[in-house]
Description:
Oligomer: single chain
Order of helices and strands: HHEEEEEEEEEEEEHEHEEHEHEH
Amino acid sequence: MFRFSLFLTVFAVISTKVIAQDIGYAKKTINTLTSSSYWGRGYTNNGMAKAADFIEREFKKLGLTPIDAMAYKQEFSFPVNTFPNQMKLEVNGKALRPGNDFIVHQASKGISATANLIQKDSLTYVSPEAGVVLSVVPKLTWSVAQKVMDYTLIEVAQKAIPTSPKTVKLAITNQLIPNFTAANVVGMIKGTSKPDSILVFTAHYDHLGGMGSSTYFPGANDNASGVALLLDLARYYAKNPSKYSIVFIAFAAEEAGLLGSKYFTENPLFPLSQIRFLWNLDLMGNGDAGATVVNATLHSKEFTLLNKINNANQYLVKINPRGKAANSDHYFFTEKGVPAFFMYTQGGVSAYHDVDDIAATLPLSAYQNIFKLLVAFNKELIN
C-alpha cells in the first residue's frame, strides 16, 4: 500500500511537471518574442529577421527538417512604410506619449511642423496648410501600410486631451522601404507510413514593429501566443511522429496583408493537394469564453468531429462556428481548395494592436486544453 501510494504521488508530480513544462515553454517563447530586442517583430531594428532566426533555431533544435533539403526560410519582398526615428507630438502645448497617447496612421508621411487646427467635425481637426489631420479616438489601434499618403494623420486617445485640440507641433520621420525582405520559416516532421499525406500547422510570427525610436508593439497575444503553440506542437510531434507528415509554417507579413501566406500558396514548397488538413493558429492567449473557428461552415464534417472531441473532454467552454473570412493566413489556402480551420480564442484581455498586448498580462487560460484538442483532432483525422 505504501509503495502504491508512493507511485501515485510520484506519477502526480511527474504529470504536473510535464504540464508545467509545456506552459513554461510557451511563456518563455512569448517572453522572448515580445522582448524589446525583437522590437515588435516588425520593420525597424531588424525585429522581424531576429524573430525568424529564433524560430529557425527552435526548428533545428527540435529536429524538424527543411522540406526537400531546402532552407528553412522562404524569402520574399514587398514595400512597407516605416517610422524609424522621430515620433514627437504636442497638442495645445502638451507633449503626448507615442503609443500610449497617440499613434501615427501607418500610411502617414513624415512631417516637421507647427500648425493651428480647424475643427471639421466632433472628432476631427485639420490643418490644410500643413497637411495634418488629427482624429480623437476612444482606443489606439495600429497597423501596417505598404504605401505613403500625401498627408499626416494622427490619432489621439480621448483620455489624453481633456480639451479640444487647437494647435499641434509635430516631428515625425517616416521611411518607405520599397523592397523589404521577409521570410516564412518552414519545418517538417516526416510521416512514418504515409509521408505524402500532410497535416499543417501555421501561425504568423510578425507583428507591427516599432513607431519611432522608443515605442514598440509587443504582440503577445497577436501572435507570439500562436507561435508558442506552433513550436510546442512541433516539440510534441518530434517526439511522437504520426503516420502523416506534419509541416509547421511560421508566416511573415500577415499584418501587412497576409503577404507571407499568399506568397507561399503561389510558390508552394510541396504540392498543396497533399494537405489533408491545415490549422492556422492566431490569438491563442485567452480562452475564458472559448474559441471561434473560421471555415467551420465550409468543413462541417471536421467541425462536427472537433466538437465531438471537445464535448467529450470539456477542453473549451464552447467553440463558435464562423464562415469563410479573409482575416488570417488560412485564407489563401482556402482559396486554393485546401481544407483549413482558423482558430482564435475569446475572453481574457482585450489588448489588440496596441502597446498593452504584453506577455505579463496574457492569461493563457485555455492554452493547454487547446493543445490537447488539436492533438486529439489530428489523431482522429489520421485514423
